[in-house]
Amino acid sequence: DSSLWRSAHKNRLNMAFKGEDHLDTLPLPVQRMHLIQVDSVQRWMEDLKLMTDCECMCILQSKPISVEKDEQNELILSSQYSTCDNLQLLLKRAWIISTELTRIAQKLEKNRWQRVHSMTVRVNCHVRSMINEYSMFTRNSSEEMHQFEKLLIDKCSEFTAFTERCIQTEDEQILKSMKSCINETLTTVAQYFGQLIELILTHEAQNLLRQIELSDRMCITESAISSLFSLTQEGAHLCRIIAKEGGVVTLFKICRQDCFRCLYPQTLRTLASICCVEEGMHQLEKVDGILCLADILTDNSHSEATHAEAAAVVAQITSPHLTFTQHLSSFLENMEEIVTALVKLCQEASSGEVFLLASAALANITFFDTMACEILLQLNAMKILLAACSDKHIVDTPYSRDQVVTILANMSVLDQCASEIIQGNGVQLLMEMLFERSSSGNSAEVAACERVQQKSAVTLARLSRDPEVADAAVKLSCIPRLIKLCRSPAERNNSDSVLVACLAALRRLAAMSPDGLEDSDFQQLVKPRLVDSFLLCTNMEESFV
């Protein structure tokens, strides 16, 4: 069977061993060892590259010269794709060009003229392809855009001519004098390219928003909103363009028309993406977007999906990571209605995703304004959230538990919270959260688990000022768990923030129940200054300033 295998794959193995009879002259065990060592997939990929290069040359040589036939072929090709696909193709091509321009600058710095020239030729081809591809699917590009297209193509041609001259000379002085000209040309190409892309994306955003505003057909409006959402996923810069072109205003118009109710979830999802930038937030404030969101959340006739996406918008605009939420004065006016609706959504959530969005919005609001914690207390939110945590189909990920424990931590500053925690078996939940570990090893999930451990320790520390809570924590063996988290870096995933929170909680519990610690733990983790205990647990020799 070994000889049969070798016979079937002999040509490929010949390439791998670089010898016609090399394999056949080896003893069978050595042959097998070599076969294991050869990465056949890698070899086939290398073969494939050579074969496709040949195929590309054949295709290029057999392309028809007739312009009319070319246009017809390209029109058929482009008609297979939607506007969204075309925009994705454009953005991908733009990313390639941008990356190539950066690499050209790096090679130019090292005077690698041959590489600079070959990459310049490649950029020239990509630019022309991008412009041709875009002209295939756009119908009403502006005169300004055409001017920039011509400027960019001319400058790319000039750039290629410059670099070609450089590889034809070996005179260092000439090359040195030409280098500054090439640098200037490269900078100009990058500027023209950036301005053209900005114009194209602005033009496409305008077209999509015009379709949403003017179309009386549901399918066209839905498709335009879907394409707009895809654009928002390409980064903050595109969100700024859409916001500046009135995207937030247009989308809230949809959310205020009953005839588009079926499009509310999709529209709200797009709004949440746009509102990650300051321009989107300003637009939301100008069109009374908060009031519209409050109306949607409190209207029981809307679907759960619509309520969930409205909650996602609220979560976005109240994110504690944003620095431009202070101007949301209208949010405070509607906060009680919004918080009430979100608590109800948490209570009635039919899936983990819906609960996650609603609880994330509540968690952010507790950072946004302290009055929210008092409202939550009045609404029995603590009881609702603790009950939800016992349902593994609803609170099913570390991300959901992160939102719940964030709310508990922020509410724990209120004295009345202690009795709610005791009644809802909340200390048991906090103890379980100290054991939070990632099952997948995914970096985002690991970070969420760290936050859960940290915030549960913070909540315990705050609530343990109440003797009843401290007593319950001691009975549930919270002290041994906190000690293990302090002493074992692996248990806390080497997180310093978890360590600090656990030390604080341990000290609070030790003050209420000193008998729960061994002398060595007391001497190392409780008695010293917090910073000294921290250094001991992290095995750090340097001191903090």
Automatic annotation (TrEMBL):
* GO CC terms, sorted: apical cortex
Q: Where is the Protein inscuteable homologue C-terminal domain?
A: 93-545
Segments forming domain Protein inscuteable homologue LGN-binding = 36-80
Task: Name any one GO molecular function.
Answer: cytoskeletal anchor activity
Q: Which SMART domains match?
A: ARM
Return the Gene3D superfamilies for the record: Inscuteable LGN-binding domain, Leucine-rich Repeat Variant
The record's section on Pfam families has: Insc_C, INSC_LBD
Q: Which GO terms describe its biological process?
A: apical protein localization; asymmetric cell division; establishment of mitotic spindle orientation; regulation of asymmetric cell division
Q: Which PANTHER family match?
A: INSCUTEABLE, PROTEIN INSCUTEABLE HOMOLOG
Descriptive protein name? INSC protein
- Which organism is this protein's natural source? Bucorvus abyssinicus (Northern ground-hornbill)
